[in-house]
Amino acid sequence: MTSTSVFRADARRNREKLLEAAGAVFAEQGVQGSLDEIARRAGVGAGTLYRHFPTREALVEAVFLDRRGQSLVLLEVACEADDPWVGFSEWLLAVSRMLAEDRGFADVIITGNGSKDQGALRKRSYVAMRKLVSRAVASGQIRSDYTVDDALLLLLGAAGIAHRSPAEAVAAVERFMVMALDGVRETGARRGPAPPSVQVFTWFGPNTLGPEAEDG
Amino acid sequence: MTSTSVFRADARRNREKLLEAAGAVFAEQGVQGSLDEIARRAGVGAGTLYRHFPTREALVEAVFLDRRGQSLVLLEVACEADDPWVGFSEWLLAVSRMLAEDRGFADVIITGNGSKDQGALRKRSYVAMRKLVSRAVASGQIRSDYTVDDALLLLLGAAGIAHRSPAEAVAAVERFMVMALDGVRETGARRGPAPPSVQVFTWFGPNTLGPEAEDG
DNA sequence: ACACAAACGGAGATGCGTCTCCGTTTGTGT
DNA sequence: ACACAAACGGAGACGCATCTCCGTTTGTGT
């Protein structure tokens, strides 16, 4: 008796390969990426994909449970930071970068898919976020009317930016988040320099004018 | 000779009905809304839709040229506001509300579709935005490192939030924008009260815990 | 080595939204 | 009123991603 699990070895291996391929495809193309392509990249047949993950939702959920888990770990570390402001702001920046580097992650945040009730994790993350925010408020470093939901609004905003342009996403999201965080601090807190400005989109079509296009 | 246009009267009427129906469907369902449903709502056949707008893109473009036009008008008004800060911040809030009330508008902003080169409008909007931002910077009311692209980042962020939850979108976007604008002002500027906090999403699945769920 | 269940693969059925085609209707100018 | 082009409608062809089914292969326990 060598069995370390109820599953056959090849089944476990294929499941792993599928999750990896799906992660890659979703990161590149968003959660609408083709399922058949995922199967192809994983080197398995379509049937195998559907046996492991009966619906797209099941696959998305499995892939992003992992990402959410990573951010939860970061979150719990951030709660213990010596400086509550540093813990708070660095966590938001770190998650923003994850969003900017993974189109699919931004997708699930924006659309709300792939996050069916996660039981214990849900409560753990909620409790940790409350702690993160309340420490920062208590230390007098962020505005007293700040809530957990406000921090999530910032992430939703970052996801909107990240979703746009894979190329400049990281730089754009960082600039956005740093400036937004300046609005979260208590009035008069000292500000550091913001990261460089990035052109992500223009209001009417692509900007072929360049920065030299002056008024008049 | 009664012709006021090269188009037949029924053709013009149907075009109008199609634009209206498309605007409604896109606002509710986003720009992926079914084209056949748009034809049905407009009370015309599918063939008529495709004759007027050969591709989905053409229809999206026609619908949102209108929305962009509205924001451009608001923008040019904002440039003339007595108080540059008021003009600047009110414009961003006004466009945010438009985004929150029209899922399709948020879509085109996030995805960048429906905004092929718009010629004169592109330059007009760019020039107006430069003026709006530079006036506010010159008056010393917003941080001196602020750029046009930063204002667009805020709108992209607002679109990300608006995209999420039609129900609470307006309230959420307002709270977001007001707080973000606090990060745009010069350090130490006096802050007004922020609109109430709104729960838009939780990190792991729906929050059934409620606000009473305390740490520990 | 054997036997049996578990898992696989991929051709093709299914479902669905997009788009076309053509017989019919409706404006328009005379 | 007539004639002709313009525009219409909607049934159904098409394309495409999803998903199933079953003959074949591969682990696993004895």
Secondary structure topology:
Two copies of one chain form a homodimer.
Chain A: H1 9-29, H2 35-42, H3 46-52, H4 56-78, H5 84-101, H6 103-111, H7 120-138, H8 148-164, H9 169-182
Helix pairs in contact in A: 1-2, 1-4, 4-5, 4-7, 5-6, 5-7, 5-8, 5-9, 6-8, 8-9
Chain A binds a DNA duplex (30 and 30 nucleotides) through helix 1, helix 2 and helix 3.
What's the assembly state of these chains? homodimer
Helical residue percent of chain A?
Answer: 55-70%
The overall pLDDT average of chain A reads 90
What Rg of chain A is obtained from the alpha carbons, in whole angstroms?
21 Å
Unreliable stretches of chain A, pLDDT < 50, 5 or more residues?
Answer: none
Query: What is the CA–CA distance across the termini of chain A?
Result: 82 Å
- Output the structural class of chain A: mainly alpha
- Summed up, the helix count of chain A is 9
Strand portion of chain A: under 5%
Sheet having the most strands of chain A: none
Major interchain interface with per-chain residue totals: A-B, 71 and 71 residues
**SSE arrangement of chain A, N to C:** HHHHHHHHH
How many strand segments of chain A? 0
* Dominant shape of chain A: flat
